[in-house]
Amino acid sequence: MAAICVFCASSRTLDQRWLDLATETGAELARRGHTLVSGGGCVGMMGALADGARSAGGRTVGVIPQSLVDLEVADLASDELLVTDSMDSRKTLMIEKSDAFLTLPGGLGTLDELFEVWTTATLALHTKPMVLIDTDGFYRPLLDWLDALADQNFLKTAGRNLLTVATTVPEALIALESRLT
């Protein structure tokens, strides 16, 4: 099956519902036979995601910069833990190691990863599918703003259409899998 990179929050102060969403996502990826590629952290949604994948028998690949390893937040239980020298090289390696991308709720780091992979897709540097999970309208204000950018010609419609939006994990994985075949 595919190597699916998931971007999500690593905050330790999130509501349980976000951790549950991450656990569900990891487990569903594993049940479908996919390998999880993540930011290599063991905290917040990122940790719950990896734990969910492993609990369902999935393979996990973590990609983490040495600076975060030094802070003792690395997912040492990963089947493969790749340590990079910077956040930039982390993103590059995550893109190289992945066949598709899934974005869960998150903050600045999550958005940075999403926009990096989306921007490189708009430049035709890859053709890997990207799906954003908009649970409970989490990303609705961002999506409205992006649609306004497209309406004002700051974002080409073709570029906007590269990102698929789903509201549930199963819907998101169906969208990714349909683009992988």
Helices and strands, with pairings:
Elements: E1 3-7, H1 16-31, E2 35-38, H2 44-55, E3 60-65, H3 66-70, E4 80-84, H4 87-97, E5 100-103, H5 108-122, E6 130-133, H6 140-151, H7 157-160, E7 163-166, H8 169-180
Parallel strand pairs: 1-2, 1-5, 2-3, 3-4, 5-6, 6-7
Helix pairs in contact: 1-2
Summarize the structure.
By secondary structure, the chain is α/β, with parallel strands linked by helices. 48% of the residues lie in helices and 18% in strands.
Q: What is the count of helical runs?
A: 8
Please trace the helix and strand order, writing H or E for each element: EHEHEHEHEHEHHEH
- The total beta strand count reads 7
First and last CA, distance:
10 Å
Give the low-pLDDT segments.
none
Structural class: alpha/beta
Q: Categorize the overall geometry.
A: globular
